[in-house]
Specification:
Distance between the termini: 56 Å
Strand content: under 5%
Number of helices: 6
Structural class: mainly alpha
Largest sheet: 2 strands, antiparallel
Radius of gyration: 28 Å
Helix content: 55-70%
């Protein structure tokens, strides 16, 4: 008679669950039955690893901007995920660089004494941030829906830099 793997109570040899604690029991623990053949005694293959759905991986490419795009570009080889990862790198990497340049340029204009240049730069800076927020939301939704939504200039640049997917 076999014993429960969780509580140690005695269970029937072919029981699927423990009668005492309800824990599922591994079928066929111990030796293979006589005459079962080599198929019953062979261990399960560990070749197949569960992968997340491509639409979820595509969404995750955009979650932290270019950083998660870079991570998924290197760890996931599926074309759909690589497309979104490369587009994320180009879109949010470019917007990140643009906001740094705008912040530096218009920050220096404030130091030089020009409030008019600073207010224009302040407005432009926040418009770029608003554009990034809108793109972030739209790209995550489209990726989760399974759509290869192409940002017009960035998708072409991503194909030139990373290859076509």
């Amino acid at each position: 008679m076999a014993h429960c793997t969780k509580c140690g109570a005695a269970v029937a040899d072919n029981a699927a669950f423990c009668g005492s604690c309800g824990a599922p029991q591994a079928a066929g623990t111990g030796a293979a039955p006589a005459g079962a053949g080599p198929a019953a005694a062979a261990p399960m293959s560990t070749d197949t690893q569960p992968q997340m759905a491509p639409n979820v991986a595509g969404l995750l490419c955009y979650v932290l901007g270019w950083l998660t795009g870079l991570i998924f570009y290197f760890i996931d080889k599926r074309p759909y995920v690589r497309f979104h990862a490369s587009q994320s790198i180009v879109v949010f990497g470019g917007l990140h660089i643009l906001t740094i340049i705008l912040g530096m340029f218009f920050g220096f204009s404030l130091l030089a004494g020009g409030l008019a240049g600073f207010s224009f730069g302040f407005t432009l800076y926040h418009l770029v941030e608003l554009l990034a927020l809108i793109l972030w939301i739209v790209l995550m939704i489209k990726a989760y829906q399974g759509v290869k939504f192409r940002v017009p200039i960035a998708a072409d640049l991503a194909e030139k830099l990373f290859g076509k997917y």
